[in-house]
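User: Structure tokens for this complex, please. No commentary.
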Amino acid sequence: MKNFIYDIPTKVYFGKNEEENVGKYLKEFGAGKVLIHYGGHSAQRSGLLDKVRQSIKSEGIPFVELGGVRANPSIELVRKGVELAIKEKVDFVLAVGGGSVMDSSKAIAHGAANPGIDEWELQTKKVPFTKSLKKGCILTLAAAGSEMSDSCVISNDSVHQKKGINCPQNRMCFAIEDPCLTFSVPAYQTACGAVDITMHTLERFFNKGDHTELTDAIACSVMRENNRAAKICIEDPTNYEARATMMWASSLAHNDLTGLGRGKFLQLHQFEHALSALYPEIAHGAGLAALWPAWARYNMPYNTERWAQFAENVWGIKADANHQEEAASRAIDMQEAYYRSIGMPVTLRELSDRISQDDLVTLCDMVSENGNRILDGPKPLDRSDILAIFRNAY
Amino acid sequence: MKNFIYDIPTKVYFGKNEEENVGKYLKEFGAGKVLIHYGGHSAQRSGLLDKVRQSIKSEGIPFVELGGVRANPSIELVRKGVELAIKEKVDFVLAVGGGSVMDSSKAIAHGAANPGIDEWELQTKKVPFTKSLKKGCILTLAAAGSEMSDSCVISNDSVHQKKGINCPQNRMCFAIEDPCLTFSVPAYQTACGAVDITMHTLERFFNKGDHTELTDAIACSVMRENNRAAKICIEDPTNYEARATMMWASSLAHNDLTGLGRGKFLQLHQFEHALSALYPEIAHGAGLAALWPAWARYNMPYNTERWAQFAENVWGIKADANHQEEAASRAIDMQEAYYRSIGMPVTLRELSDRISQDDLVTLCDMVSENGNRILDGPKPLDRSDILAIFRNAY
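Assistant:
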């Protein structure tokens, strides 16, 4: 087991109607003026935004608003948000939405606390920073785990880049998680969320490391229960208990708990970031699902024992030492079939007819930074490995 | 699933030699003057205290010291500590030790921040309080989970009481967890720790609640891995990985994670608190082990389905709906046999020859507060239930 630091300060208010207390919680965390940040019209239509405004007003906390966050949130809107936050002297950013809204909120909080530094310089770590505004969220989608993670991913279309940054400043002060707010999430988005949740933990699980049995058991619990619950959510969208399981799995899968004592690098995510940088219309979870089987089968021979553990503890396939490869293969088949069963693409061709075979080299160059970058892992991936995986995924 | 608040702010520095950074961490948490609090001579003899002093000195932070914490820490020493902390204008209490030292440190921190209020009034919730000094710990025993819990238990011999209080003020700012510091823990204390760890999670698991599948899977992971690791620690005391698993299990078992969405009441712990209030020489874990089989067998018929889940996920005993009771009984037998195998008593008679049959009524009166208190749970326990359990445990 590697040494680790556990530092997950986000306070979670989990359960029915907790969003009605947002004003109270903002007050507890000392918010002076709030920027409410959100996405499209659904938060408005559902009445959620009105509830939020009402709750904040009732505590006498002033606020401004900025909507319009898209999937794969853009640096352009972040810049707008920073300008607004500085002009309005905001000291707290409240995200009302899913991963895109949360990440956009984080980037705005960083930019507003570091005026004069370009937001993309912060996001790409060219300028290190320690300050950020306080932030919190009301979660409306179980997927990204941004509500408890130290991660923030932003896209810059002008340079076809999608970049993530991990730092303590990315942690939310609080997360309000009411599973009822996800009842209206369509089946496709629910499935995308399920993939993202499992991958956050699965990619940690397949990092370098050994003797992390307790972490591993927790990781497999999250993957297994998330698989189980997501299926129910798709068949029965207003099933509170299943929505609650997915929501809590989303938070635990990416807050670090499921990888403590191991490496933390998310190898497969690097592939998907290139993909949705090139095609911003692609849903992150669907992109991961389309890439996953090829990535898994490519890695398995280099890490067979670990894949056999995954087979046993996520899919219930026990195998003795002589049959680990067989069990591992079967588990990958089962996870792939499961994704198919919840309507996810399992190849790039299924994902989007815009992706051509010629794009694969471009994607490979993006991930490998023209051959200058090797992706760390039990099987480190160089340019040729990366290209092979993209081709196998096609 | 019940609504819940997740609020576990303790920052954990986990791994080899982390204790050498204690000065740096104290500085990060803004310590102005520190009270180093510890138990007997072992921290001195092992050289740990010297390392701690050196690290704090090197950061230029002044400190005072108070040793002498015993098992089942006493309100008398807490009072001494409070006096010293106030006189010396201490603003941070650093516990170097196990559960007793940590709990004593917490009580001192509360008392010092609330001068003029008797420490036992705070501990017994007669005077509510919100202030406390900051606190941190260097853990030397995997057992109590006090390093991340919101719990603090103190004994008052003069009134034969042992009382616990749960509040956010009980959370440590940081916990330094170096598994190497537990290499020298004798087999008996290691086993006592293993019992305490499992019981913190097991008692949460058997609280009222439903549809907490993800929490349950994590809870069973902690119990299973703790059982496995403790056996190794006893056979091979310097096994780093097993010591690390026990240490991390100790923190997770009692920080709330393993019970989220369920009730939190620790039913069996109430029995043991009476026991070690009457006999302060009894080790808490051994007391729990001696009481556990009788408590488990008494509860099982009222919560059979849940016990069958425990059987499957902790002891690998699968059973269909018609054989749940059989599986549950077998699992209780196995956990009992396991405790015997690691040298733990499984009856009160085995625990101590000072306990007479006449004491059982006294103990029952203490737990049931002379019949005025019912212990909440799937089977609520009144005076007659409590007496029956004590008698069955004899």
